[in-house]
């Protein structure tokens, strides 16, 4: 089995290097929920073509990118942040990383330029698994689970290198797969 760590809220899922599903190819996902009812999370490194101002006309500052959180409910908007002193009502899912909160506060903070792009990340849609589905995918070596990571990884906007950097940070056991080609036939 590729992953020796079990899935849980606040952990990262890193896709195996040859995943063919375009929704998850070379993806890093932050799990926000994990229980007997299933799992939910957001793809951290698939930026959409939209900025938050494109989706919400009452937000004047449009330089905050929106990421494709996953293939489920792409007509919904979600956010994670690391500034609970500015945004109330969020749920802490990992040390210093919060999911959701008072959206009216978020809009006001954006409109008054009080949120930096490394403090919040927006997602259209989410990634979801039904009961037992993620466990089956872990058994099939579809994902590697990481339980230790720097929160800067979650809020980076270097989506091109995120997957590789996270794989290398897992240590010697996994570092070699960071250099695998996306298409093994091209090797």
Automatic annotation (TrEMBL):
Belongs to the UPF0301 (AlgH) family. One of its GO terms (cellular component) is cytosol. PANTHER family: UNCHARACTERIZED PROTEIN YQGE (PTHR30327), UPF0301 PROTEIN YQGE (PTHR30327:SF1). SUPFAM superfamilies: VC0467-like. This is YqgE/AlgH family protein. InterPro entries: AlgH-like. Pfam families: DUF179. It comes from Mucilaginibacter agri. It comes from the Bacteria.
């Amino acid at each position: 089995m590729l992953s020796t760590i079990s899935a849980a809220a606040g952990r990262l899922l890193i896709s195996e290097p040859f995943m063919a599903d375009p929704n998850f190819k070379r993806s890093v996902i932050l799990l926000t929920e994990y229980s007997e009812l299933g799992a939910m999370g957001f793809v951290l490194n698939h930026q959409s073509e939209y900025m938050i101002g494109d989706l919400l006309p009452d937000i004047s500052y449009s330089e905050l990118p929106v990421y494709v959180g996953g293939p489920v409910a792409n007509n919904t908007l979600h956010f994670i942040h690391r500034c609970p002193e500015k945004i109330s009502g969020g749920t802490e899912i990992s040390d210093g990383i919060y999911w959701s909160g008072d959206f009216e506060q978020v809009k006001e903070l954006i409109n008054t330029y009080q949120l930096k792009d490394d403090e919040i990340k927006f997602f259209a849609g989410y990634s979801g698994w039904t009961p037992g589905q993620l466990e089956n995918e872990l058994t099939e070596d579809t994902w590697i689970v990481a339980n230790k990571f720097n929160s800067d990884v979650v809020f980076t906007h270097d989506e091109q290198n995120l997957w590789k950097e996270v794989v290398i940070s897992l240590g010697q056991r996994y570092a070699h797969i960071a250099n695998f080609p996306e298409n093994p036939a091209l090797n």
